[in-house]
Amino acid sequence: MSDRDAAFEAYFAARSDAMRATAYLLCGDWHRAEDLVQQTFTKLYLAWRRIKRHDALDNYTRQTLVRTFLSDRRRGWFRYESVGSEQTERATAPAGLADDRLMLLDALAKVPPRQRAVLVLRYWEDVSVEQTAALLECSAGNVKSQASRGLATLRGLLEEERVR
Description:
Oligomer: single chain
Helix content: over 70%
Structural class: mainly alpha
């Protein structure tokens, strides 16, 4: 095994679970999250030789993950809404999740993809506004407005769920 492969393998072992959790928040499906992570790490491996700054590797990987998610959504590569998807999601979620968390994840899955990406990066990954803007290739103002709209949508969905 080359040093390059060993370094990639170590990085994959250290970060794949965290990226899988982020991917799940983006797409709302554990199987799809696994696919997104595989696509992301495949792209990362192909670019591994060209990457000079390994201190910025997490940002590069996160950016690749989010762009892969958004790209697949645009192309219609994966159908996120399907008959019975709510039952499937509850069955595949890790055991022991609280009802509030399930309600939040269900609501997050209904937030538009770009707003969801901003919410996940800002509030799950704790990425700054400026870094989120760089990752999504948009302005800081756009990130702020997407976050505001996304939070408003999320609050509305959660309120509807509580009323039921």
